[in-house]
Amino acid sequence: MFLKQPEPQYVPGTRVRVVQFVRVGHRRWKTEAIGTVEGEGLRPVGGMEMGGKALYCHQPTLRLRRDDGEITEVALDENTRVESLDDPATTSASGPPPQSV
Fold first, then answer.
1. What is the pTM of this model?
2. What is the 3-state secondary structure (H, E, C) of 57-101?
3. How large is the C-alpha radius of gyration of the chain?
4. How far is Cα 26 from Cα 49, in angstroms, rounded to an integer?
5. Cβ pair 20, 29 in contact under 8 A
6. What H or E segment, with its residue span, contains residue 10?
7. Is 95 in contact with 78 (CB distance < 8 Å)?
8. What is the pLDDT of residues 33-91, one digit of tens each?
């Protein structure tokens, strides 16, 4: 079974800021990653302990190279905000829509 890759939404080489909020109990923390887009992909969600769910359930990701050279991969969801820092005409772009299973 092969999964069709979605069309890329972010051009490699574009500098972006990814903003997400993490909620734990009644607290909410803002997380931010700034870097240059290296690529997009899908990561499996679940695993053997979930009955092989990883075979058909995937989450979009964005691979970034930060200013210090660190490479990070950010999982995107419907609440993720991705802002382009290169093009002032494009102030904000939302992440990809959630995938239905």
1. 0.70
2. CEEEEEEEECCCCCEEEEECCCCCEEEECCCCCCCCEECCCCCCC
3. 15
4. 29
5. no
6. none
7. yes
8. 999 999 999 887 776 666 655 566 788 999 999 999 999 999 999 889 999 998 655 44
